[in-house]
Amino acid sequence: MNRMTFCPNVVFPNITKVPMGSKRKRATSPSSSISGGDCDDGHPVSGSNVGSSRKRRKLSNVPTVDPIAVCHELYNTIRDYKDDHGRLLCELFIRAPKRRNQPDYYDVVSHPIDLLKIQQKLKMEEYDDVDQLTSDFQLMVNNAKAYYKEDSAECKAAGKLWDLYTRTRNEFVQRGDYEDEEEEDDYDGQDNPGTTGDEDSAAHYNNLKEQLEHLFEAVATYVDPTGHLISELFQKLPSKVQYPDYYEIIKEPIDLKTVAQRIQNGVYKSVNVMARDIELLVRNAKTYNEPGSPIFKDANTIKKVFNQKRAELEHNLEPTKSSLRIRLMIKYTHRFLNSSIKKLEKNRRKTESQLKHRLKVLYNTIVESCDPTTGRRYCELFLVKPSKKDYPDYYKVILEPIDLKMLEHNIRSEKYTSEEAFIDDLKLMFRNARHYNEEGSQVYNDANILEKILKEKRKELGPLLDDDTTSPKLKLSRKSGISPKKSKYLTPLQQKLNELYEAVKNYTDNRGRRLSAIFLRLPTRSELPDYYLTIKKPIDMEKVKSHMMSNKYQDVDSLVDEFVLMFNNACTYNEPESLIYKDALVLHKVLLEAKKELDGDDDAHIPNVKLLIQELIHNLFVSVLSHQDDEGRCYSDSLAEIPATDPSIPNKPPLTFDIIRKNIETNRYGRLDVFQEHMFEVLERARRLNRTDSEIYEDAVELQHFFIKIRDELCKNGEILLSPALSYTMKHLQHDLEKEKKEKLPKEIEEDKQKREEEKKELSESEKNMSDDHSGSHGTYGIQRTYSQDCSFKDNMYHVGDYVYVEPAEPNLLPHIVCIERLWEDDTGEKWLYGCWFYRPNETFHLATRKFLEKEVFKSDYYNKVLVSKILGKCVVMFVKEYFKIRPEGFRDEDVFVCESRYSAKTKSFKKIKLWTMPLSAVKFVPRNTPLPVVRVASVFANADKTENKESVEPMAEESKGDENNSVIDKEREDVPVEISNGEPGCQYYEQLHYNDLWLKVGDCVYIKSHGLVQPRVGRIEKMWVRGGAAYFFGPIFIHPEETEHEPTKMFYKKEVFLSNVEETCTMTCVIGKCSVLSFKDYLSCRPTEVNENDVYICESRYNETDKQMKRFKGLKRFSLSAKILDDEIYYFRKPIVPQKEPSPLLDKKIQELEMKFAEFEEPDEDHEECIEEEAETAEQPSVPQLQTPVTNEMEIAPYTPPQSTPKSIKGTKQKEGKRKTNPSGYILFSSEMRAVIKAKHPDFSFGELSRLVGTEWRNLEAVKKAEYEERAAKQAEQQERERAAQQQQCASPRAGTPVGAIMGVVPPPTPMGILHQQMTPVTGMIGGYPQGMPPLQGPVDGMASLGSMQPLHPGVPPPPHLPPGIQPLGKNIITRSLSCL
User: Fold this and answer.
1) Integer Cα distance of 1218 and 380 in angstroms
2) Which end of the chain is more exposed for a tag (fewer CB within 10 A), N or C?
């Protein structure tokens, strides 16, 4: 029971007001009615004269908008609002977190709510005003702020969402408050008629009463578009006897009768008081009834009608006279309401008694149903809910437990207002049973059986008939031809459904016969009672059409399933050699061809998994190689310098990023784990060959971290691609790095120690050499240096920390860049500097693929002294973190350089500088006006490298042509033996085995050589072993649809196979390839990545060879293998595919067989055609008499058209030989005899009725007599063969042009439309031609019959004793059309 809470704080400008008292009260506030009327109406207030003199504001421009519409507008504004980035602001609040994913959310938030729930409440019209919507939005925002951190995106979005909501709502509120205050001020004086005299008081009372009458009229007489009077159930309170709980829930009952009495007695002193009663009436109905029920909706409609009428009256200041009808209705309210209420109560009691009786019948059907074999009642486990003590988890899993005892109580207390409510509870009970219990358990099966029994019982009872007075809907007669009004525009789905329906309905054969005529309507139960015993789900085309018009079909496949069911019914009930059986197959084929044209390419919806894997690997590779740092440097640039092979592992093939790129371009990676293995090999080699503090090492670690991150994002942690590669995570990488650093750091520390000692030794030696040089040039004087922080040269001052250009050692080179670290002057007056040299990119050793920053230089490990006189000028070298933001003052741009890394000439490697330790300079820096963009340029060696590549491209191409292999790189595997306890001696069993260039494991499916079959059979490996050098496997066999016995109308999924009960042992030499067989669920959702789509099959059923039955099973067997076995990679589709079905492979074959059988009497012999042509030339053509029985438009018979004459010279004997007649069966012989007998007994029966009776007689015939007819048919076949041979001899004789039928005196066969001959009077139900002396029978033409040659009875066979006098028995060559029922 939904209880609504009200927050009457917001006033809307679109809800206009009526006169009120001095205290401000909202007209729609429910609190007023609950508190018992706290309005000050009728009490004099001081200063009211002043208020009455004020002119009332004209409200004609104020729009009349329902508060519920305002709620919808507010919700739509919040839902559609997008931020600056184009994202929906509300996307984080559409659905609350799931309890399974975030259980702690529900510990913090006690009342969760989201936008979906708000939208549902809007649809169910549970909001009475904006206050309630505001409280829900505020609750949603407060929940987000309570659970999420303040700096989280969710918390920030919640704040923005609330600001947007309040801002949008205030646009209404501010304007509404202004108008509300002014209106109330105007009405304060008007609500007190005693302040202006008796005349004004009387006038005001009359005007108020007139308004109340108009409002009551609007509510009491409103009728919805369907003709339903919405006030019917609100005119009188419900009975306390029938609804005692109503008065327990509703504390202040009220009805329209009470409102009418209060209007008549002058109780209402203002419109507000009546509005509160209407609000109370509406709230009571919505409190007691469920949201979405008819009464709930009618209550909302009453409120809308009242508010709209109220606004209309307030806009029109001129009082209008109430209608006489409403005045009389209010004056005589008892008589008016009592009569309608009595009628309503009578109809309601009648309907309720019918409903209660019907529900009891359905309930008893469920309770009394039992197993016919054991006598066990199916409902035993549904009578009472499980015990909470025995099954505590049941009430955690099942949120709405229900049992039959509760349903019985609800029926007795008449709580069900409709049959659908009772059915919903039953379905809930069955659904709970299936949800809690396992599939295949007794409870699960009982639930399915009971639901089926319930469905059949409802069909048997038919719809619940409503009385005409209570249901004013238009009832359409099935035979009247009236159909609901069609929409002018059809949806795309409706257009497709109509095209399919019309294609089946309008299909005609080559004679113009419409095949769908017999399928339009089902036979009645009186005509064919056994039909409804045989066919459990009868359906005809009229029912299909009604389903289409009521929009029952949600897709095209639903319509196709109904048609297929109809054709299956026809083939199940009718004999395989009957005409209707053939028509059903033909229409089935027409249906599928029409659907195929509508669908287009059936396979377009199945994703190309191999292409998707290639795209995923390509995107992952590009993302890793393009990964950049904050300054825009690609981490992969430094790794381009590592060698292709590891010197410690010389036998391993070379592998670099370029080789991996070529493999991706040639689609050599079919598995993600293989690609990951190659990427990690390159990155781990870079780590292995470099120090832990080197740039290459750090870049390799960063790229490996980034690879794992992007891999998990692209695979969605296994939701898109499930691969063994995902087992290597960040934790594994961190563990490997820590282990690697523990091994390398002690060695690196020792190397650093030795390097420092060598540097000290070199430094001391260089100083010694310098002193030796100085002493040698100055005799015995020692070295005297005067150090200083600055010095001057050529009017320029140079300081320690300055960067200078130094004259190059060789001509045609750029000047060197040196950072001054020391300055001194020797005793001869020569000035010297000592410092660190910076290299340009062209002065370093690097690969041509490396990129550099513009104006980039590298701090080298080279230090040396040079004369100050060699200085050419000043420059500045800045650290990369400052270069783009600030600039040195007073320097040209070309004299400013950036440094990001240091360069080691010994190791020829680069390493990023983390801390800038150069001496401080006296240069002043200022911010740049605009920060410089980070631009990287190619190496100066790049162009030269391209030129060299062009020169050597031809020989390299020739070399690579021989070495290149475009085959898919497979994962390294090994044979995995396994021990089996019950294995045969001398056999070595394997879980994984390599044989005939195929890696096979237990559980794989393979193609097996098959002789005489169109497609190879499919087998599943459950055991593998090797014995005596030969390999074998054992497992079940999957068969294709053409290997099963089934009806031709049955449809199969494309690539569907069936698990047979045949298990075979085969040699591995029979295996010709691998494939994959998936269960129905897996086929819809995923694919193995290494199997082509053409080799993927679907299996959802098992085929039993003994009883020839197909039965669905839960799923295919799954195998648990050891860790050494390489698991398959599985790609999961983003949304499940819809598998397409195709017709049975037997359909075309069966149609061809039946066409050959019916060709003998559907197509007349050429000799007969010639006879007809000759008679047509000599005889006059009388008019065709009109049929006495009208023919419906669905069974139209085309006018007779004589066959066109063909010159005899054109007709060759080869054409005659091509029309080879088929032999009749036993059923056809029986039909030819029995039809005449039945026709003689029932001359008024139509052709369809005769066919149905013939089919019934054949089914009831004993097996012995059926065998006799089959034997006669076989003998007749032999005689027909002899006659054909005689006819071929006649063709060569001079009398070959004479028709055979003419010699024997037999009337020619009928024309396609059932007319025997233009000179003959049509007869009723003729089966064969009569001799010329027999007069034609009189009667209406009810159907068509085929004629054959009148032959004498077969020797030894007596004529049927029950033939009527004067009718000859039909001969053995006669083949009748069997048009039996569905």
Assistant:
1) 67
2) N
